[in-house]
Amino acid sequence: MSDPVLLPPHPDTQPLKEIAIDYTPELCSHCPISNTISLTYNHRGGSRWRSTNRFLHGTFTAKIQCPKGNTSGLNFNLYLSSLEGDKSQDEIDFEFLGKDTTIVQTNYYSNGDGNRERIHELGFDSADGFHEYGIKWGVEVIEWLVDGEVVRREEKKEGEGFPEKAMFLYASVWDASCIAEGMWTGKYHGTDAPYVCLYKDIHVFGASHVQMVGE
Which of 95, 143, 154, 158 does the annotation list as catalytic? Predict the structure, then answer.
């Protein structure tokens, strides 16, 4: 399948050149020259990469081809988070649920409070080819885009939490079949392992919007 026709990258974005790998580095491959990353899930588990710096607002995009085969039980994703695993994290998500690769879930957290999930019908199988997924995060608005079209828009409301902490860009592939007794992503079977999730043309906001780790 050929790539969809997309608008040029936002003028304030730049290719992601450096990543950190949080675990199982042998299951993550990064080529900064071609701006491609692959994540594999096999008998050893999965892996997770992230940007090396946090960003305070901006536009973040990547073309993603999800793993092929029976991916039931797996979660593959692209998301912003102030710090993975922190109970008070801010976060903005795209999450693919392995039981059905024709849908994607969006969500966002403020100070650890989430439960804002929405399911979106893609109109295609995310495993059949590359499609672009984007997050536009502003001071008062978040937009989630698929192939340049806005699929969800959230505005900051008085008295409600909204992401405002500087965040890393993350992606991972992992077995989520333990959540809700498999109701969320399905039960993992592994009949088509190894599973490979591909990312390319990853763009993040420009240097003027970077917050160095530790700031």
Answer: 95
Distance from first CA to last CA of the chain, Å, rounded? 43
Each residue's pLDDT tens digit, 21-63: 999 999 999 999 999 999 999 999 999 999 999 999 999 999 9
Q: Is position 155 annotated as part of the catalytic site?
A: no
- In this structure, what token pair is assigned to residue 175? 């077995």
Catalytic residue, from 91, 132, 140, 158: name it: 91
The DSSP string of 140-209 is SEEEEEETTEEEEEEE--TTS----S-BEEEEEEEE-TTGGGGTTT-----TT-SEEEEEEEEEEE-GGG
**Model confidence, pTM:** 0.90
Quick count: other Cβ atoms within 10 Å of Cβ 8?
A: 6
CA dist., res. 214 & res. 53, Å (int)? 9
- Host H or E run for residue 74: strand 74-81
Give yes or no: 95 in active site: yes
d(C-alpha 19, C-alpha 35), whole Å: 11
Q: How many CB atoms lie within 10 A of CB 130?
A: 19
pLDDT digits (tens, 9 = 90+) for 184-200: 999 999 999 999 999 99
Cα 37 to Cα 47, 64, 85: the distances in Å are 12, 10, 22
